[in-house]
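Dissemination and training. As part of the outreach component of the grant, students in the summer workshop were shown how a complex can be specified as a set of sequence lines and then modelled as a single object. The example used during the hands-on session is reproduced here so that future cohorts can follow it. Participants entered these lines:
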Amino acid sequence: MHPIMTDSHATHRSSTPRRLRLGVLAATAALAAGCASVPNPSPNDPWERYNRSMFAFNEAVDDAFLSPVAHAYQALTPQPVQTCIGNIFSNLGDAWSGLNSFLQARGHDFFNTLGRVLFNSTMGLGGCIDVASMNGSRKIHNDFGITLGVWGLKPGPYVVLPFVGSSSVRDGSATLGTLAAGVSPVTPVFQIDNVPLRNSIAGLYVVSTRAQLFDADKLVDQIALDRYSFIRDAYIQRRNAQVQSRLSSDGALPDYSDDDLPDYPDDDLPDYSDDQDVPAK
Amino acid sequence: MIQRFISLLSIQNLARLAGAGLLGLSMAGAPALAQGNVDANAAPNDFVMAVGNNALDAIKQNAGAQRGDLAQINQIVNQFVLPYVNLEKTTRLAAGRYWRQATPEQKKALIEAFKGTLVRTYSGAFTKVDQRSTLTAQPFRGDPNAEDVVVRSLVSQSNGPTVGIDYRLEKTPQGWKIYDLNVEGIWLIQNYRNQFAQQITQNGIDGLIAALNRQAS
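and obtained this result:
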């Protein structure tokens, strides 16, 4: 009943012709949707059945359309140009990160990021060259989902959004909400009146970002037993860490307890402190 | 079109995990060629920095490993990484409560198989190292006398963003041993727990070992 898509994914991805692969994925998605239970339910992922179907759909869309275009972009564009384009979009993203640092009352991050944007926009020729990073200023990623987390909102269940990919109820609402409200990292692009130009820039953004992910994608294929679980767990861990780092590391009294260490609970043997030997059964 | 934007935004997090994160894994290991000595009983930060910097130098000097030559990488990992890593503990914690169901042979095979996964992870990381890659420690937070500590560091690359890497180590009679690794907020063991459990409940421990080994081919 549940040969869920653990193996089918990894193997079909690389070898099968694209159209066939699309079919296989659609079939797997249907299978997952029709399956009554998931083999290893995770408390953070109550909607796993739906999520797996959507994940398969996203992968199919990516394989069929986005990846080929991004591959072509990578092949046709000289590396310095790719870097420049990536940096310009990254600089736009920094402006958004800075605003969120402000909303989180993290003045230090806010001014650092503001400095990055100003420096890169001027000395870095509109963001083309990341001179701020070259001078030792670390990029501080931030977004409205993290801001909501800092304000005390729990992430809620993990959810895979169509086309969007990994998210949670909180983060997904934050992304869609800010986009709908017209304040988001991509808003400047939508302000452009010339429609073909606007769409070209939007498309370039998508393609450029996708092209930067090929290495990561390949790695996940090589080391994940199950792409879905691997990506889900990484997403949940990372988002959680992003919020926690903002809650505990600032202020006069940093928390020195190991609250940011993962807990490895065990039903029968909750304490791992005695790690030399585990009682044999 | 709108949706695709966001999709990429969220995938970007993953990119950082993998693309750059690999570097961290490579830093975790590969110590001591003929360079600085690693004192496994030194302060945690000093121990990790010695291991990491030696590793970095070793990778910089090995063009084969940087190209992704698995034999070379295997050799570096075996010779310079594993002495400072408690792979048995890493595997055991990843397997969680299922570990006790495994026979001694299965345990051995599982550790070996998981090592293969980690070596493949390194192979991606090594390609990101260049002559300007550097490793810096962040101030140690916590009790240096504790048996189980976390060392935080930053890896800077000329061709990508700076990445935060944390190491979790424990004190053993032989000195410090690294057993878990955090790349930009993602702990290695934590990220394999669900996948291990999933494989074991479906196909048993032998199934998990087979699945790990299958990736190698």
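Chain A touches chain B through 79 residues (CB under 8 Å). Students were then asked to discuss how this feature might be tested experimentally.
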